[in-house]
Amino acid sequence: MSDILCQWLNVELKISTYVEPNSFAKDFATGFLIGEVLHKYQLQDDFDRFSKSRAADSKLNNFSRMEPTLHLLDIPFDLNIAQTIMTEQYGVATRLLYQLYIALQRKKKARLTGVAMEAMRPAAPANLQTIESGIYKELLKKIVPREADLKLKQVSQRYEQKRKKTEEKVNLAHYEELRKIQKMQQDLRLQDIEKHRLVKRRQGEMMARIQAAIVQIPKPPPNRTLEAIAAQKQQRKKQEAQEVYNEISHFEKMRKRLSPSVGSNAAQGILQTSFQSEGLSSKYVSPSPEEKTHAYKEYIQKIHRRLEEDAAAREHREKRRRRVLLEQLKAHEAQEEAYREEQLVNRLMRQSQQERRMAVQLMHARHEKDIIRQNRIMREKQYEERRLLEFQEALDREAALAKQEKIDYMEQTRKEIELHDAIAAEYAEARYRKHFDICQDVLNQIIDLVTKAGEYRELTHNLLPAKLMREWKELFYNGKPLYEKASVDPIPSEPNPEQLLELEKLQILDDQDYEEFQTMTGEWAPSEECEVKEPPANNNVLGHVIRRLFDIINPPRPPTPPPEFPPFSLKACAMGKLFAGKSTCLAKIARAHHIQILSADCLVQEAVKAFYDSEEAEIITEEKETRKENQLTARAQLGAVLEKILKKGKSVPDEQLVDTIVEAISRLPAESGWVLDGFPVNLNQAKLLEKALSGIDPDKAISKKMKKRKTSVLTTDPTAPKEPPSPPPVLDLAVLFDVSDNMVLRRAAGSTCGQQSSDLCQEEFNPPPEGSITGVGSKEMVAAVKDLSHGQEQIQHRITGFLDTWPKLEDWFGGRQNILVKVNAEMEEDIVCKKVESILFEAMIQKEQKGKKLPIEEEKKETIPAPPAPAPAPTPPATPVHPAEKRPRSKSPKESQSLPGSAKDRKGRKPASPKGKEPSRKSSKSGASRSGSGRGRSGKKSEPTTPEVPSEPTPTEPPLPKPGSDQWVYVEETVPNEIAEYLVPYWKNVCDTYINNTKAVMHNLRIEQDLIIHYLFNIRKEFKEYLKRPDHKQEFLSQWQHEYNCISDDMREDEETKAELHQRADDLRERLWDICDNRREEAAQERNNIINDGWIEDHTGILINHYSSMMQVSVDRFQDTLRLLRDYYKGIEKNILPEASQEFTRIPLVDIINMDQNGDLEVPKRIPLVPRRPLSSDQSGTKIKNRTANLESKDEMLVRDIWQAALTAVSNMIAAEVQQRETEETEEQRRIEEGERQRSSQVSAAAGGKDKKKDQKSAKKKGASSPTPPPPPPPSEDDIEEIKKRELKAKMRQEYFSALEHEEYMVKARLELIKSKSLAVVRDLLRKAEEAYKEIEEWFGARFLAEMKSIDQITEIIRHHIETAAKIQNELVLTSMDFYINGDLKVFPDPVTPPRPPSVEFQVDSTLTILQLSALYEQFCRAAPKGLVSSKDFTDILQALTTLSLGNDLLPDIWMHLSATQIQELMALLTLDSELIDWHKFLLLAAQPWPYPSQRQLLQTLERFKGLDTDGSGFVTEEQFNKTDVWFTSDIQILNDPTEPIPYDRMENLKKFFFMLFSDHQTSVKQLDYVNMLLYFAAHPDPVEGFYRALSVTTGEYITGRKTSSNLLKSVPNMDEIPSDEPPGSQTPPATDGGRVSLGALFKALCHGDFKTGDHNRFHSQDKTLAEYYENISQIYKELGYEDSEAIPYNILSQHPFMLDLIENNLRYKLTDIHRVLQIQQNEGVTQSSSAC
Fold this sequence. Notes:
By secondary structure, the chain is mainly alpha-helical. The chain is built from 52 helices and 21 strands. Strands 2-5-1-6-10 form a 5-stranded parallel sheet, sandwiched between helices. Strands 8-7-9 form a 3-stranded antiparallel sheet, with no helix packed on it. Strands 17-19-18 form a 3-stranded antiparallel sheet. The protein is flat and about 200 Å long.
């Protein structure tokens, strides 16, 4: 059901909104779409009052208005349904729509209108329904909430949400404070815990140091060396020094506890001094006893000295205390003495009681006065301070409010600009999308044009027809596609869009072809053979006739007089965006210069106010009694209309606005100026204003011009009145206040006004005075402007509306009227006002100057006398004639002489002969002139009167004007309306028929040309495919090759066999030649079939018929024009029109289907047919050229015969018309003579009977003599009127025959053009066909020669192989005409080449091969997967490998003969005073020799690995490892000899072995810890240097340290570092601080592998864990003043004594050359064996 409703709404009704089933409830909730559906069925007349808004008021309005209509359709609809629909409940709207659909379909079937249904309702139910509707509306108003209530509810909800958010923020802030307090308490608790932990940690460190001071000497192994014993001694000395140092430190701590003032700096300084004196800056060496005694003595002396100083200080303090006490005692005695003296003076100065009382009172009064005065001063001071404080507070409040206002203004401006930018971006995006779509369409059309040109270049051998290119260009210029075609034959009654598009394309092409045909350009440009070189001139007489007929039917209306207004000095308008400054600037100018400013808004308000005030005007009416009537003024009447519109909530229409403005202009005083403020806003208002002020509608003026242009398309009248010039614009000036959008938004925001003066202010451009916000300082307070009209909210839309409408206004005022002036309104206000003022003054001055020039020009025109009338005045022979008007008079006779086919000179000569026409043309011309002259009736009557014509003295008179010239006065006699009403539609039908038939023929010609192009291409293509048809040559060739290769090699060497093979080769060649000859004959037969199929002949005949149809169209037009002219002049003569003849001249067509030969075809031959018999076909194909030439001559003859028939028909019609006119003139002349004879007889009879008798007697006597004619009687008034009628008829005949002569010339010129074009097309078609046939012949000839050449090449190759007795291994391929040897295909296989032997690695001395290393790796993996093996297990594994018979290739010979002692010595080199051995290091040493990396190469390799490890995990996969370049590469050269094995690449296999050795095999994907691997390669014969290299690897920086000498390094001179690939100068120097080392890097370098092996430092302990070891190392960082996370410079780190000890005694990175040891042992064994021998 939903789909049915969607189909009904979207497709059948096409409502304004596209609806879907799932959106019914939402779309129909407003009721607008329901009203639109009812309006579609003409049931809702007040649909224009429906609102599309979703507001509550809109819903109430819509549902109230549609309720009666639904009840009229008997659809149940009440308050509940309306409420459910408005609340968008699911299914209710769908059910209502379905009921509406059923009711409307029922109404549609009954064909009832809404009025009829209303009338059919009974009165009682109708009244009841009216009452119910009123109740429904009242209840609906109560149910539907008001929009104000909804907005208030939304506002309250918004503030409720804000309150909730504020409470949430307060709660969140309170929670944050509690959380901070808890966190602070937690931090304090953690700090306490951390303090306790640090105390425990320090105690633990102290205990660890104490324990570390105890040197634990391990049990020496049996195989101790001298170097190990020396190292132990050195270690023991260091431990003793450490113990002494610890004792001294303990003593210092105890001393600090006993005496805090005595620090340990002295002792420490003494120790440091003693250490520095001995050169031990970083080591603590135990002092000697003498030094200790000296230090103790100094310390005791300092104590005694300090005690003496304390005793002296106590004595001095006691002395000072006694001196102070004496001074205090003396001061007390002096104070007592002064007191006694004062008491004595008081006793001496004692007064009486009265004096004391008075003194006390006086003192009391004085004191009160002082208190009052001080209180007053204090109160004034407080008041002043309070005033200053309040004033300062007011200033601060004013500043704060001003700042807040500015912030609000900036924020509002920013929001408005952002919104405007978004709207502008959308606008620009839409415009860009529009331009992009246009460009995309143009580009697609260009691509289609190029593709189309490419396709037709392929069809026409790169010779693209110019006509096709013009057609494609025309379609391209009109924006029509080239490829989309739809079938329009026949044209359907209701075409689809594709068919409409195709019809438009055909119309464009037809118009183009017709235009070219009319103007003789393009395809219809005259050729060299054509005798007509220019298009015929216009037939002025015919044009005059047609114009008169059209004027009779549609007489021109007199122009309406323009409205009358008083003269104004200035008429201008000011336009621009909102807040552009128009009103402000114009107001200033108006106050200064008394110019009237007209604002549309103000005028509307004034009109409405006038209506409310009942503004009346007195009207005096003159009747029997004069009385006065009071009537509303025009302004009040307009106000009534405007008030009704505004009450409905609609905007004022443009018509009412213009009427209001025009009414206000009419009330302005004369000679004043006015300017429209902000009007017009759009183009419609501008046009309406132009129409109201000038009385001319611009749109109608343009439509009239277009209509007059289309009045007659075949001829024009040069004497027709020309169009009056377009009137000047009614406005003198249009000023645009140009301002940017951002400036408008900035001016619109922050507007304020005074509360009393209402002065407007603006926050940025006209800020209010300081203190106006709070009124401080007696300033007028300002308040924000109330936006009652919601202009601020609509400013964005108004800007967008101005941008949309301004381009059209700019084109109107700037392009058409040229009165637009732009002013930059972003400058200062005074500058803009001055600029506008100067522009207005210039416009007023120019208008005043124009007004002064007009009267002067009118006076000049009045003083110049009018020229005489052209009819009576003789025209001098030297008077120049316009070329366009001179051409038909001067050229038409000559061109008509050059055109063949005259009706009088056609006898006795060939049709194509251009000569022999002048006598007939001159005779016809003289006859026409005689028949057209006013005095020609005597000359027409008899021939003897013609010799008297030259005797008249005519040379002195000017030549008479010819019909159609400028001096010719046309016959302007009245034409009956019946004739005009008949001839005008007749002429329209003639024009339409001529144009439509011409376009139809052009369309058929285009189709035929396209068919010809495709046919010629298709015959070429099909013939090429025919030549490529398969044959059996390859089969014979493959069979011969197979038989030849099957012959054995020994037989192939025999001479007889070679002779037999040569004979077989000749037979093969003959057979292939026969196949080629047969294919050649078949190709020739196919070519003859193509030539003789008759397609070219048939379509040549079709082309000739099309051109014959064009000739027929031209002849029909001539015949129809002749009839129109004849009827027109017959109507002027008031003669009865002859009946229209149904017989038309028919031009013959070519008989293509040979109707004369087919007796079965019974078709009435209304059109004569010319038989066209094709020539006999020539099967041999040797006479093609003669056949084509004969066909061409025959087709040309057909064209010429058809053309001659058309000329004959035209000439016959002209001759018949001339003959008819001569007959009419003869009959009229006879009637005139009879009338004169009767008139003369009556005159003679009245003279008397005597004279008559005498005359009779004398006549009898003189019978031989002729009587003398009586003198002519004087002409009467009737005779004068008769003479005028005869002269008028003669003039009409002259016009008539002149028009016919011009039409004859025009039709013959068109026929000549069509003939020449048809001949050119036929010749071109035959030429193209001949070229195609010739090309086909060349193709199969060239193919035959190529096939013969390929056969000769095959024969040569076969004979060569026969002579050399060799097999033909590769396949011989002969495809059509190409021969080649297929090198990719062999007929028998090649001998198999032996495989290359694999590469093998040979043993060299003690070096293990890769296979042996891999076997050892697997053995150790099984024994110790974690990489550490005990010395006992290692010895057992080596002894097992050397003693058990596991194969000779498991170990080298030197290794297989190792004794137990030698294994123990080898193990001693690897263990380094430890019980565990790292077998990874053993296998790395066993794999030597390998390229030894330098420190810089290790860092470069590390950087490469880090570049691949993007995640920073420290691991790489096997694939990544293989891609990485290490410090060594392989340089194996592969030999070209396939029998030699490939040299073994040990370096590449070593790289793979290293990955296997150091990778983690426990994971699913093998991964390599590249830092761990590089630490193994960092080993060095000098362990200190090895540690530096390892530290460089862990830190990634170049670490350098102190070089130490090593006896082992000296003893191994060959183990030198390989220098870096970079030159020494290009290497990056190490850092000045030696590089920075982090705690993690140092720990990783120290704990590489098992940290319990090879360490001989004071931190080494068998019981320590990794965490403890890490704590010991981190303690070094803390002692040096660094944190654990900081990287310390190595130069500082290396100064620490513990660090020096770690570096010096670290044997982890010592590189041992076990191969050298094995070689030494082997040499010793050889020496012992030789000595034993």
